[in-house]
Amino acid sequence: MQPLEIKKGIYWVGAVDYVNRDFHGYALSPQGTTYNAYVLLDEKNVLFDTVKHGFSEVMLGRLSHVIAPEKIDYLVINHVELDHAGALPQIIKACKPETIFCSPMGQKAIEAHFKSWQEWPLKVVKTGNSISIGKRSIHFVETRMLHWPDSMFSYIPEDKLLISNDAFGQNIASSERFADEISRTELEHAMTEYYYNIVLPYSQQVLKTLALAEELKLDINMIAPDHGLIFRGKDEVRYVLEAYRRFAEQKPQKRALIVYDTMWHSTAKMAYAIAEGLNAEGVPVRIMDMKGNHHSAVMTELARSGLVVVGSPTHNNGILPHMAAMLTYMKGLRPQNRIGGAFGSFGWSGECLKILTEHLEGMGFELPVEPFKTKYVPDAGALEQCMEMGKALARALKVKCGG
Ligand code: FEO
Q1: How confident is the model at residue 1 (pLDDT cuts 50, 70, 90)?
Q2: Is residue 83 annotated as a catalytic residue, yes or no?
Q3: Which of 3, 263, 357, 392 has its CA 20 to 30 A from that of 98?
Q4: pTM of the complete model
């Protein structure tokens, strides 16, 4: 339970959760995650954020190697979601801070989550507020809906350090603490997975926050998020800011994703025939069936796919439940700038295309090609039509991507 000094007098004192695979109750965290917390020693000793319930002893053990917990003067709560605030009662009891700083919406969230809040010395801070803690100062920036109403950044200009809470996080559980210690491929995958399952609906807020950071002329050479690895040095900071701009802008990419579920493999055969058509037009494709893929993994793949083709047979006048769940999850995450396509087999009533199309339209996808269904088992002619559908979708995607 050793802390790690990330800048002079500033330490990581969080916890690594190697076990959790169910991040926030809805997203896959294949490696587990981390709950990062930081302590800064100055004339006032300041703790930034805490950890999930069940990890308070780990955090306090690590903190005790830096400073006796009762010597903490200030606690900053950048976000009240329970992976960062679940241990608050235990940490506050151990540290007894003289002041606890939170955003206006943070106070409301604290009141709703914790019975003992009235005994806590809360002080509300807003964007533009700052406090002096000795040689350093802390500047607060509210980042509402990035990704909760209460979310906030803490910026320490003297150290060019931004403590960014959930933003710029990744679900990585490892002994490394810095992003430059793992491969870019692994890092980029973890960042994408996190963004596309947690942050995506708030992409407009991301762009606004990036603009605000420029407007405030925040000079940053380290970004320390509350999940995963820390970005140190100007190049790393530039890399993660640009990655977030790219994620948020969602420019169309010349790559396709086919997501389907199937009963007796008729819809599966159609999926593979559509993929042949896409390939024939030079568009790379990934096929993901919903019996073998988690909805989080599908969203991660969607990040690089300008075209999303969805398939399901008709089942009980609807679509198969895994596809219904997938499309509901996808819709909530509000992907933008995509082309869509729909296909499926049916036996008698045949509602699948109507339902799939409604889902895609509900997400604002462009549907440049007529959806296609086939009765019971696709014959050679039906598979040929699927292939043609793939080709037509590929051509439409290429136009959208500018050729
Ligand atoms: Fe990592 Fe929104 O909690």
Answers
A1: confident
A2: yes
A3: 3
A4: 0.96
